[in-house]
Design a protein that fits this description.
Number of strands: 10
Shape: globular
CATH superfamily of the largest domain: NAD(P)-binding Rossmann-like Domain
Order of helices and strands: EHEHEEHEEEHEHEHEHHHHHHHH
Number of helices: 14
Bound molecules: nicotinamide-adenine-dinucleotide
Helix content: 40-55%
Strand content: 5-15%
CATH topology of the largest domain: Rossmann fold
Distance between the termini: 63 Å
Strand order of the largest sheet: 3-2-1-4-5-8-9-10
CATH architecture of the largest domain: 3-Layer(aba) Sandwich
Structural class: alpha/beta
Oligomer: single chain
Largest sheet: 8 strands, mixed
CATH class of the largest domain: Alpha Beta
């Protein structure tokens, strides 16, 4: 199959290599002309994926024209660029060609809607959209380390086609009809990963991090269900699966940025030191705005917003969370006997 991968960062590169391994004809689009020339010449991105070489027959281009001849598009750009890239793509992509989005986050330009909504709108509803998301570090996928992921779509046909195209002996793909839950889990877990990093950077314990992750997921699911997601999706690969990998791995930029903040760096210094997109920063603003809009209680997200956007002190934020009024763990209450 002819596949056009938009984005030559770590995730676009890792997925292009995986698709090439499955025998597909892959073309990769770069955002900048300079990056295109450099990749054509060097066939590697030493800074992002050290030691990973792009196979010679993956073509690298800087023009969107390839979309006119493709059978499938994979959108692998940072969250802030999804809307603009989808609009550019819509000008050349024929109707009915499926678009698989692998970016995680929400569309700040359009009222924090999900990316599948942004893409569908850009394509005037003429192309099926799939979210491919889960616990998947590019550093591991590019080296063929066993990984599982979920292809979620309102279209069963598109989800199953995605499964067939990507799946191999090291990359296992499940399907799901709950694209709402899959996208929200993938976007919001980055907030919790930043916070888990802050907890590590402050030198708190495993108990603290486990509590933060678990209660964080409860909040994400609470908002997700209000926005139309299924509760059980948050217990799957795109929910707790992605949360575990992002909060516990040193590959996670969000966690690394959090560690630096916990160690005393400013948010700006931490983002600069990580040197690549820290999606949790943007997701925190999205979570804060949506919680307000939907009237959902999200104390951890509010605490993260205070630290990241209002110059709040992280230790004080933890004291505030620990000092909240007592409550029950699950949403239901007992019927008093
Ligand atoms: N890296 C991972 O392991 C991983 C895994 C799953 C999902 N994702 C998601 O994939 C998306 C891309 O992440 P990444 O890790 O490949 O990022 P990256 O930081 O490695 O690369 C980003 C790429 O985007 C390009 N870019 C910069 N500005 C752009 C713009 N305005 N328009 C289009 N492209 C632009 C850069 O040239 C670079 O090639 C993110 O949403 C991320 O959450 C990443």
């Amino acid at each position: 199959m002819k596949i056009f991968v938009l984005g030559s960062g770590s995730w676009g590169t890792a997925l292009a290599i995986n698709l090439h391994k499955n025998g597909h004809t892959v073309t990769m689009w770069t955002f900048s002309a300079d990056e295109c020339k450099r990749l054509q010449r060097e066939r590697t991105n030493e800074k992002l994926l050290p030691g990973i070489i792009l196979p010679d027959d993956i073509e690298i281009v800087n023009s969107m024209d390839e979309a006119k001849n493709t059978e499938l598009v994979v959108l692998a750009v940072p969250s802030f660029a999804v809307a603009a890239t989808a609009e550019q793509l819509a000008e050349v992509l024929p109707a009915d060609i499926p678009v698989i989005n692998v970016g995680k986050g929400l569309d700040a330009k359009h009222g924090y809607c999900r990316f599948s909504e942004t893409i569908r709108k850009a394509m005037k509803g003429q192309n099926p959209v799939v979210a491919l998301t889960g616990p998947t570090h590019a550093e591991e996928v590019s080296r063929g380390i066993p990984t599982a992921i979920v292809a979620a779509s309102e279209s069963r046909k598109a989800a199953e086609m995605t499964q067939d195209v990507f799946m191999n002996d090291t990359f296992r793909v499940y399907t799901s009809p709950d694209i709402v839950g899959a996208e929200l889990g993938g976007a919001f877990k980055n907030i919790i990963a930043l916070g888990a990093g802050i907890s590590d950077g402050l030198g708190l314990g495993d108990n603290s991090k486990a509590a933060f992750m678990t209660r964080g997921l409860t909040e994400i699911a609470r908002l997700g269900v209000k926005l139309g997601a299924r509760q059980d999706t948050f217990a799957g690969l795109s929910g707790v699966g992605d949360l575990i990998v992002t909060c516990c791995s040193m590959h996670s930029r969000n966690r690394r940025a959090g560690i630096l903040i916990g160690q005393g760096k400013t948010v700006k210094q931490a983002m600069e030191e990580v040197g690549a997109v820290v999606e949790g920063y943007y997701a925190t603003e999205a979570g804060h705005m949506l919680a307000k809009k939907m009237g959902v209680e999200m104390p951890i997200v509010q605490a993260m917003y205070h630290v990241l956007y209002e110059n709040g002190n992280a230790r004080d934020a933890i004291s505030t969370l620990m000092g909240r009024a007592k409550t029950h763990e699950s949403e239901e209450v007992w019927i008093t006997k």
